Amino acid sequence: MIGESTRQPSAEDMRGTLPEGWSRVRLPEITEITMGQSPPGSTYNSKGQGLPFFQGKVDFGERYPTPRVWCTQPKKTANAGDVLISVRAPVGPTNVADRKCIIGRGLAALSPLAWIPTESGCPNAERNKSRFLALFQVNYCYLNGKLILY
Q1: Which of 16, 31, 88, 90 has an alpha carbon 20 to 30 Å from 107's alpha carbon atom?
Q2: What is the full DSSP assignment across the chain?
Q3: Residue 62 maps to a domain
Q4: Residue 59: which CATH number?
């Protein structure tokens, strides 16, 4: 069309505007990233022995993964409350670990660092986990000092 701009949108244009008081940071500044690694196939089982082993989006539920396979020799693990993100096709879908689990090479686990800067300083670890989970729209509460995901 005549007069139409051929300028490609910048990364800044594509990200959109942030709510007041927010700032952009790189993910490694606020989270520990653990890339999954598959354990030896001979250590897998379907009898519930060891830890649940999640390999990718195939294990994802609406919010939390559903165990199909367990493993007795973990290579890489995620903890309850860590955000699991698919890093192989399809890239991007997320779930939240509701228990300690093993992550295979199709997943990465994101866990908030102990210190996430805020306008009021450094919140405690529980508040950090709460803020982090809120970014992924996870329902949670604390019961007797323990993080409960629902």
Answers
A1: 16
A2: -TT---PPPPHHHHH-PPPTT-----HHHHEEEEE--PPPGGGEESS--SEEEE-SGGG--SSS-----EESS-SSEE-TTPEEEE-SSSP--EEE-SS-EEE-TTEEEEEE-S---BTTB---HHHHHHHHHHHTT--EEEETTEEEE-
A3: yes
A4: 3.90.220.20
Residue type (1 letter), 60: F
Tens digits of residue pLDDT in 14-60: 567 767 776 777 778 778 899 999 999 999 999 999 999 999 999 99
Q: Distance between CA 119 and CA 19 in Å, rounded?
A: 14
Q: How many residues does the chain have?
A: 150
Count of domains for the chain = 1
44 and 53 Cβ atoms separated by less than 8 Å? yes
Evaluate whether 101 touches 76 at the Cβ level (below 8 Å).
Answer: no
